[in-house]
Amino acid sequence: MAPVKVFGSAVFANAARVMACLEEVGVEYEVVEVDYMAKEHKGLKHLARNPFGQIPTFQDGDIMLFESRAIAKYVLRKYAKSAQDDLLREGNPEEAAMVDVWTEVEAHQYLPAMAPIFYECVVYPARLGTTPNKKVVDESLEKLKKVLDVYEAHLSSTKSKYLAGDFFSFADLNHFPFTFHIMTTTHASLFGSYPHVKAWWERVMARPSLKKISAHMEIKA
Amino acid sequence: MAPMKVYGWVVSPWMARVLVCLEEAGAEYEVVPMSKSGGDHRRPEHLARNPFGEIPVLEDGDLTLYQSRAIARYILRKYKPELLGEGCLKESATVDVWVEVESHQLEPVLRTIVMHCIIHPHIGCDRDQAAVDESLEKLRTLLPVYEARLSVCKHLAGDDITAADLCHFGFMRYFMATEYAGIVDAYPHVKAWWDALLTRPSVQKVIAGMPADFGFGSGKRP
């Protein structure tokens, strides 16, 4: 059985999302580099895999997928072998619903607040040699604080170890790639004001799968 | 079994996403209308349901859910899992792909156009034509991909309707009421797909609560 392929290295946060899932379910995979700076993702070969010309794409036999969260769910559904690996909880409607809620919250509340900080403080300095735009970063920090207020209240009121309940799930995993990058900046200290969020993050990063992937995520010039 | 409750204003495209799924699923539900201009979504009783202060919110017994796509998945999983492609890895993945495409590629673009072209004039905000133009340019790169996809199958994830198509309904409804709707005419399969969606009883029922001007013109601002 040929290993599955991920097109785009872990340097791309959305590719790291997919690889984290592959590691969680213990599936062998091959990483195929896509040369972003050379615009390889807009070339015909890549467009045949993802007509929107984005990274990552994914191949498993004759199945070709794009959109990292869709790929991730496919991997988790197909390869989860035990209750330990069941990060989607689709057999339990209430649990699956909470996984979906916090997955959507990451995409539509958390990430939009965090993304400008990610670009200004991590990507642009590494790729373009720029210094962060203070106004953009400060505006995002204010938004992120409001979001973290909600996370802190949620984790402290439910007393749950993870976002969807006492089980590690796809919802927690989805927070990994971009939060990891923010934690490499001076803004990591923001999380110190949110003790339950900080404890949750430390729990999440203790996972061997995420430690392994994070070693390959540094964005360089 | 008490019917599910959906909190929000029915003109909202996010609310529409949930309502059209409820209708397709044939689920029993009741809308609890809220007032946006009255700030109902910021009141403590709503923040207790959704700490992000947004709509729609679904209540099903003890379960309270927010984020329209999470709600949609819960409803369809419970009442019509085939609309999620459940049970088939390839189908469910394809549904997920096109739900994500709408979420991350199309919706941001349609939302900007609808905000500036329909809503801003009613709330005394200027229309930022540069923002609209940027969104239109992006839209013109997305529509060919949709056209290619819908040339191969009748709906986004296959020949039958799925959550992927339903998730597109709300924002498409309002985009197609703007002066830019004609852009879609150059993409016959996209047009046919949209026209077919409009004939569905579920869509007709939900669209009845969604006047093209969000209700501002008739004085029924949300």
TrEMBL record, chain A:
It catalyses: RX + glutathione = an S-substituted glutathione + a halide anion + H(+). Residues 2-83 form the GST N-terminal domain. Residues 92-221 form the GST C-terminal domain. The keyword Lyase does not apply. Its EC number is 2.5.1.18. Keywords: Transferase. GO terms for biological process: glutathione metabolic process; response to herbicide. Pfam families: GST_C, GST_N. GO terms for cellular component: cytoplasm. GO terms for molecular function: glutathione binding; glutathione transferase activity. The keyword Glycosyltransferase does not apply. PROSITE patterns: GST_CTER, GST_NTER. Belongs to the GST superfamily. Phi family. This is glutathione transferase. It comes from Dichanthelium oligosanthes.
UniProtKB/TrEMBL annotation, chain B:
It comes from the Eukaryota. Its EC number is 2.5.1.18. It catalyses: RX + glutathione = an S-substituted glutathione + a halide anion + H(+). Coiled coil: none annotated. It is an enzyme of class 2 (transferase). Keywords: Signal, Transferase. InterPro entries: Glutathione-S-Trfase_C-like, Glutathione-S-Trfase_C_sf, Glutathione_S-Trfase, Glutathione_S-Trfase_N, GST_C, GST_Phi_C, Thioredoxin-like_sf. It holds the Pfam family GST_C. GO terms for molecular function: glutathione binding; glutathione transferase activity. This is glutathione transferase. It comes from Dichanthelium oligosanthes. The lineage of its organism: Eukaryota, Viridiplantae, Streptophyta, Embryophyta, Tracheophyta.
